[in-house]
Amino acid sequence: MNTGLFITLEGPEGAGKTTQTARLASWLGDLGLAVHTTREPGAGKIGAQIRQVLLNPENVGLNPLTEALLMAADRAQHVADELRPALLQGQMVICDRYIDSHIAYQGYGRGLSVAWLQDLNKTATDGLLPDLTLLLQLPVQVGLARTKKRGDADRMEQEQLAFHQRLHDGYAAIAAAEPRRVRVINAAADEDAVQEQIRAAVGDVLLRKGLVAQDALR
């Protein structure tokens, strides 16, 4: 049993997860909570090496099954080395991508069996699931336009429009299937409005678990 709170941010390319993760962490810190931020793939020394293989644009021939297994390997290492230890210390863990990205990208995007991926993740995570998932959703073209402004697109960002549309639909299906865990955030809004939605969703969980008082959220 974990004693902290496990929050994941999910969404398509260009949704603003990195920015919103940092802002959420700062807010939780201001509330006096211990916060640990991380990401997938690529946390830690081993994860960084796996991330390089997964996102390198030169690896155009990477087999979808290989890709899915590498994602699972990254997650297993991440859970063992970082996620579970931080939660056992009572920290508020915020992770940029987790299981839902695996289901959306390799399941809906690549066409691998969603049921198989779910079973794979049960093993890779040793049963560790988020307390709350924030799905930053926005129109596909809007997200891709944002990534283009950043430049140096990685292997996933360079995929065709149809792939990204499947991701969008996959995330929507995940949210519909698990409404108690997944809160959909309108990521097409401006940065402050997105953060306001996130704080409202996280605040509800903090209150429900007795981690903060109502007055602290005003």
Task: Please summarize what this structure is.
This protein is an alpha/beta fold and 218 residues long. Helix content is 55%, strand content 12%. The model has no long low-confidence stretch (mean pLDDT 93).
Task: Describe the fold and architecture.
By secondary structure, the protein is α/β, with parallel strands linked by helices. It has a single domain, classed as P-loop containing nucleotide triphosphate hydrolases (Rossmann fold). It is built from eight helices and five strands. The protein is globular and about 55 Å long. The model has no long low-confidence stretch (mean pLDDT 93).
Strand content: 5-15%
Rg for CA atoms: 17 Å
Query: Spatial order of the strands in the main sheet?
Result: 2-3-1-4-5
Supply the helix-strand structural class. alpha/beta
In N-to-C order, the SSE pattern is EHEHHEHHEHHEH
The coarse overall form would be globular
The helix content is: 55-70%
Please write the CATH class name: Alpha Beta
The averaged pLDDT comes out at 93
CATH fold-level name: Rossmann fold
End-to-end distance, in Å?
30 Å
Record field, number of beta strands: 5
CATH architecture: 3-Layer(aba) Sandwich
Keywords:
218 residues; alpha/beta; five-stranded parallel β-sheet; 5 strands; Rossmann fold; 8 helices
Chain-wise SSE layout:
Layout lengths: L4 E6 L6 H14 L4 E5 L4 H12 L8 H25 L3 E5 L2 H11 L4 H12 L6 E6 L2 H11 L10 H17 L4 E5 L4 H18 L10
Parallel strand pairs: 1-3, 1-4, 2-3, 4-5
